[in-house]
TrEMBL record:
Species: Gracilibacillus halotolerans
PROSITE patterns documented for this protein: ABC_TRANSPORTER_1, ABC_TRANSPORTER_2
SUPFAM superfamilies noted in UniProt: P-loop containing nucleoside triphosphate hydrolases (SSF52540)
The name this protein goes by in its record: Phosphonate transport system ATP-binding protein
CDD domains: ABC_PhnC_transporter
Keyword Transmembrane: no
PANTHER family listed in its UniProt record: AMINO ACID IMPORT ATP-BINDING PROTEIN (PTHR43166), PHOSPHONATES IMPORT ATP-BINDING PROTEIN PHNC (PTHR43166:SF6)
Entry annotated with the keyword Membrane: yes
Cellular component, GO annotation: membrane
Gene3D superfamilies: P-loop containing nucleotide triphosphate hydrolases (3.40.50.300)
Domain of life, source organism: Bacteria
Cited SMART domains: AAA
UniProt GO molecular function: ABC-type phosphonate transporter activity; ATP binding; ATP hydrolysis activity
C-alpha cells in the first residue's frame, strides 16, 4: 500500500472557484518529489489538504491507510505528528531559543512557555541537540531564533519537524526566501533526510531547475490541475 493516495481531490475556498481540480496521485514510502508550478497554481493548498490544515472539499486523501478528510480532532493531532511541515517563512517562535523551538515541535508550545527548558527531560534535550548537530547548528542552540540568518532558521524548522519522527515531510517553498548558497544547503539537507533516514518528502518549489536537480519525480501543477507527473529527467524546461 502506498504511503499517500490522493484521489479525485478538489478544493475551493468559500464556495468560490476551485483551486484544485480532480487531483490524483500516489506516493510511495521513501520518494522525494517536487511539486512545481507558478504562483497560484495550488501547490500550497495541495499540501494543506494533505495534513488537513484546510478542509478537503472533494475526493480523498488517504495517508498510511487512513482517510484524512474524515479525521476527528484527536486523530488530526496524531496525523500531524506523522506529517512534518516546513514553511517558506520558517514559522518559528522568534523570541524562543533554537532548542526551545525544536522541543516544542514535539512536546507542545504551552509547556515551553511555562517552564522553558526545565520541563524537558535530559533525553528529550539530548535528542534535540543530536538533530541540531546533524543540521550543523548545535552551536546556536541557546540563541533566540530571530538572531539567526534565514538559512539557519530554516534548519531549525527542519529539526522541529524531524523531532516528531514523521513518516512524511511537506515543504512549502522552503527556499523561496533564501539566497542561492543557503538554498543549496537546505535542499542538500532535505535530500539527506530521504536518503539517510528514509523519510518521504514532498517539496513545493517554483524553480524548475532546482526541482530537476534534487527530485526523482516531479508533479507539475497549473491552475489547480496536474499537468505533469513523472521522472524529473522527463520534464523539459520548455514545457
Ligand atoms: P501556490 O502555492 O501554487 O502559490 P496556493 O495554493 O497558495 O497556490 O493558491 C491557489 C489559489 O488559491 C490562489 O488563487 C489563492 O489566491 C487561493 N487561496 C489560497 N489560500 C486561500 C484562502 N485561505 N482563501 C481563499 N483563497 C485562497
Ligand atoms: P506565502 O507565499 O508567503 O505562503 P500566500 O500569499 O501564499 O503567502 O498565503 C499567505 C496566507 O494567505 C495563507 O494563509 C493563505 O491561505 C492566505 N491566502 C492566500 N491567498 C488568499 C486569498 N485569495 N484569499 C484569502 N486568503 C488567502
Amino acid at each position: 500500500m502506498s504511503l499517500l493516495q490522493v484521489e479525485g481531490l478538489g478544493k475551493y475556498y468559500n464556495q468560490q472557484t476551485k483551486v484544485l481540480k480532480d487531483i490524483n496521485f500516489e506516493v510511495e514510502s521513501g520518494e522525494f518529489i517536487s511539486i512545481i508550478g507558478p504562483s497560484g497554481a495550488g501547490k500550497s493548498s495541495l499540501l494543506r489538504c494533505i495534513n488537513r490544515m484546510v478542509d478537503i472539499s472533494e475526493g480523498h486523501v488517504v495517508f498510511d491507510g487512513e482517510d484524512v478528510g474524515s479525521m476527528k480532532k484527536s486523530e488530526l493531532r496524531r496525523l500531524r505528528t506523522n506529517i512534518g511541515m516546513i514553511f517558506q517563512h520558517y514559522n518559528l517562535v522568534p523570541r524562543l531559543t533554537v532548542i526551545e523551538n525544536v522541543l516544542h515541535g514535539r512536546f507542545g508550545y504551552k509547556s515551553t512557555l511555562q517552564g522553558v527548558l526545565g520541563r524537558f527531560t535530559e533525553d528529550e534535550k539530548e535528542k534535540a541537540f543530536e538533530l541540531l548537530g546533524k543540521l550543523g547548528i548545535a552551536d546556536h542552540a541557546y540563541k533566540r531564533c530571530d538572531q539567526l540568518s534565514g538559512g539557519q532558521q530554516q534548519r531549525v524548522g527542519i529539526c522541529r519537524a524531524l523531532i516528531q519522527e514523521p513518516k512524511l515531510i511537506l515543504c512549502d517553498e522552503p527556499i523561496a526566501s533564501l539566497d542561492p548558497n543557503s538554498s543549496k544547503i537546505i535542499m542538500d539537507y532535505l535530500r539527506k533526510i530521504t536518503n539517510e533516514m528514509g523519510i518521504t518528502c514532498l517539496v513545493n518549489l517554483h524553480q524548475v531547475d532546482v526541482a530537476k536537480e534534487y527530485a526523482d519525480r516531479i508533479i507539475g501543477l497549473n491552475k489547480g490541475e496536474i499537468v505533469f507527473d513523472g521522472p524529473s529527467n522527463m520534464l523539459y524546461e520548455d514545457r
